[in-house]
Amino acid sequence: MGKKELRNLQLQTLKSIDHIAFQQKCFRIEQLLFQSPEWKNSTTIAVTISKLPEINTWNIIKRGWEEGKTVVVPKCFPENRELVFYELLDFHQLEPSYFDLYEPAPDKSAVVHNDAIELMIVPGLAYTEKGYRLGFGGGYYDRLLSSYPGLTMSLAFVEQMVDTLPIESFDIPVGTILTEKGRIDCGS
C-alpha cells in the first residue's frame, strides 16, 4: 500500500473514534506529556495547531502559557516547502490558511529560530515503535528534522501505531512517542 492510501486509511480510522473516547485519549496523552522530563525541562516548545481528527493541541498550548513556556507554532511556506516557527502569545495571532489549518500571521508574530526550540512535537498520521512516521505529505518536517538539534516527540492514539511504514532515506524518526497507553522510547 502506498503512502496516499495509508494516509486515507489512517484518517478514516481517526475519524471513527467516538467523541467521548477521543476526549479521554487526548486527556491521557496530555497528562503523560506534562509529566514527561522533555516537557518539564524545556522552556521553548514547538507544536502545531491541531484540527480534527488530530490530537487536540490547543490545551497543550494553553498549559505551556500557564507554565511560562515559550510556545512556538509553524507556518508553512509551500514555495520552498519550509516551516518557520513563530512565538504564539495569543490565539488572535492565528489566521486561517490552506486545508482549514490555522497558522501564525507573520505580521503579528516574532520568528523563533529552530536552534532555540528545545522540544519539537512532531505531527503525523501513523507511527512505528522505532519512531518513523507517516506525515500529512509534503515532507516539511523531514526537511526540518534533518538539521534540528533538539528533542523530538510525537503524540499519537494507539490506533496510529502500526507495525510497518514505507520508509525512505530522508525519513527522520522521532525520539519519543506518547500514546494514551504510555511512553515509547524510540531509540533514535
Strand-helix topology:
Elements: H1 3-15, H2 19-35, H3 37-40, E1 44-46, H4 58-66, E2 70-77, E3 82-87, E4 94-96, E5 102-104, E6 111-112, E7 119-121, E8 126-127, E9 133-134, H5 140-145, E10 151-155, E11 176-179, E12 182-185
Parallel strand pairs: 1-2, 1-7, 7-10, 10-11
Antiparallel strand pairs: 2-3, 3-6, 4-5, 8-9, 11-12
Class from secondary-structure proportions: alpha/beta
CATH class: Alpha Beta
If you average the pLDDT, what whole number results?
93
Largest sheet report: 8 strands, mixed
Q: What is the share of helical residues?
A: 25-40%
Strand share of the residues?
15-25%
Strand order of the largest sheet: 6-3-2-1-7-10-11-12
CATH fold-level assignment: Rossmann fold
CATH architectural label: 3-Layer(aba) Sandwich
Describe the structure.
With 188 residues, this protein is an alpha/beta fold. It contains 5 helices and 12 strands. The longest helix has 17 residues, at 19-35. The two termini are 26 Å apart. The relative contact order is 0.18. The mean pLDDT is 93.
Short recap of the structure:
The chain is α/β, with parallel strands linked by helices and 188 residues long. The protein is built from five helices and twelve strands. An eight-stranded mixed sheet has the order 6-3-2-1-7-10-11-12.
